[in-house]
Structure formats: structure tokens, C-alpha cells
Design a protein that fits this description.
With 224 residues, the protein is mostly helical. The protein has eight helices and two strands.
């Protein structure tokens, strides 16, 4: 299966799972699904990061111990999704994921199609400025569109544009940071899920997007 097909199928499955969990949480009035999902993914990502330190299957290098500690702290940022769910609601949680991952998908396809100018070749040789620009435009578009379609978020399309852009930029920085850790550890992917890498690869951009979304949302949402 090609990487593109794997990404598409994973995206469809991910949407289906999140929709089911959202329905369960709404029906039961609890947030245990969000807590469980975030906890499971964070635990898997932490295990993969530990593998960087113990010695990768590819290459001969290991992640230095100080970077392992930084990596663990970085992974813990995933729990900001639970804080978004608790403070701002389930829709706001989906909003951050949509703006961030929408940018991820656009960056991948734009960069693969027309990318020429390398963004950070020493860290991630495949990332390009064209892909980064495409990803940012997509995050901005998703942010503005959802703000317009979902009035309950209390964001105007203009503030949604700013919100989506900020979440998208944070996501791209987070992606680069995980690439930096992998480069230091001498590995290509954090895991071996076909076409997807691993749990850390799935979470990388979301880890900085989560606290960005959590702190920025109340600053942009209308209160009156």
C-alpha cells in the first residue's frame, strides 16, 4: 500500500473513531474517551521515544539522555487536549485537530507535488517552503471555515483565521522538533505502522498545537 493510500485510509478511520467517541461522550456526559485516547497515544509515543534512547533498529546512534527528557516532556503536552475538552468543550478540541491536521495533509501533498525549496534540510530533507506555505494556507482556511459554520465556538471568521494560522504554525514547528529528535536518534520513523510511522509521528504536530489552541482560544472567543 502506498504512503498516500495509507494516509487516506488512516484519516478516514481516525475520523470514524473520533466521531464514535464524541457520540459516546455526548451521550454519557463524560470525558473518559478523550482522556483514554490521549493517554494511550501519549504512552505509545513515550515508548517509541524511549526506543530512540535505547538504540534504534536503523543506524548506530542513540538519542542523548537530555534529549530523551525533553522528548518525554514534549509528549506530555498531548494532555492539553484533555484540558481543551474540559475548559472549552468537545467541538473546540476537534477544531484544533482539524486546523492542525488539515495543514499537515496540505503540506504533504503540496510539498510532494511542487516543493523545490528545502525548509530545513539538516533536520527533515523532504520538507519544503512550498509545502509549509500550503499547510499554513490550509490551516487558515480550516480555521476560518469552521468558525463561520459553527457559531457556538464564538469565533468570527477573522478570529478563526488567526486561530487556524497560529495552530498551523505551532503544528509545523512541532513536526520539525520531532524530526530533529529522530535525526539525533538516527531513525526515519518513530514506529512501523504501514505508511504512517508510529504514534509519535501521528502526534508530533499536535503536541504544540494543543497548548497553542488552549491558551489562544479564550483570547479570541467572543464573551458578550
Amino acid at each position: 500500500m502506498t504512503s498516500a493510500a495509507s494516509r487516506f485510509l488512516f484519516g478516514a478511520a481516525w475520523i470514524a473513531v473520533l466521531t464514535a467517541l464524541a457520540w459516546i461522550e455526548r451521550a454519557t456526559g463524560t470525558s473518559w474517551c478523550t482522556r483514554g485516547l490521549v493517554g494511550a497515544l501519549a504512552a505509545l509515543a513515550a515508548w517509541e521515544c524511549l526506543g530512540f534512547w535505547m538504540g534504534p533498529k536503523l543506524g548506530n546512534t542513540r538519542l542523548p539522555t537530555p534529549l530523551l527528557a525533553v522528548g518525554f516532556f514534549y509528549i506530555l503536552l498531548a494532555f492539553y487536549f484533555f484540558e481543551i475538552r474540559k475548559a472549552h468543550g468537545l467541538v473546540a478540541t476537534f477544531y484544533v485537530v482539524a486546523a492542525c491536521k488539515g495543514g499537515d495533509i496540505a503540506a504533504y501533498y503540496v510539498g510532494s507535488s511542487i516543493g523545490r525549496l528545502k525548509l530545513a534540510p539538516a533536520i527533515s530533507p523532504k520538507k519544503t517552503w512550498e509545502g509549509a506555505a500550503g499547510g499554513l494556507i490550509a490551516s487558515v482556511g480550516v480555521g476560518a471555515t469552521i468558525a463561520w459554520l459553527v457559531p457556538s465556538l464564538l469565533l468570527t471568521p477573522a478570529s478563526g483565521t488567526l486561530y487556524g494560522g497560529a495552530v498551523g504554525i505551532a503544528g509545523q514547528i512541532g513536526d520539525l522538533f520531532e524530526s530533529f529528535l529522530k535525526r539525533k536518534a538516527g531513525v526515519k520513523d518513530s514506529g512501523n505502522w504501514p505508511g504512517l510511522g508510529g504514534a509519535f509521528d501521528m502526534l508530533d504536530s499536535l503536541l504544540l498545537a494543543a497548548p497553542t489552541g488552549y491558551y489562544l482560544y479564550p483570547l479570541l472567543a467572543r464573551t458578550g
